């Protein structure tokens, strides 16, 4: 029952009110990990019905995790900034500009 509640909550509280409008407005793909609520049949059917494209997440392999590559690439680009960010606000601005 607990897992079913999580699946329904994920669809009702995250996907429907937040993800669907954002993705449709900005033409993004959704990527989530393989957590049970994310891959539950009710959620995958909901995403298909809403025509939400989902980027596959490799199972249990950090070296194949797309988000790990994104963070590494962002880190390399930020480190090339001259002058180097002196505080959190400058770092945030640099990240947002990338």
Automatic annotation (TrEMBL):
Residues 22-83 form the Tc1-like transposase DDE domain. Gene3D superfamilies: Ribonuclease H-like superfamily/Ribonuclease H. Pfam families: DDE_3 (PF13358). InterPro entries: RNaseH_sf (IPR036397), Tc1-like_DDE_dom (IPR038717). It comes from the Eukaryota. This is Tc1-like transposase DDE domain-containing protein. It comes from Cirrhinus mrigala (Mrigala).
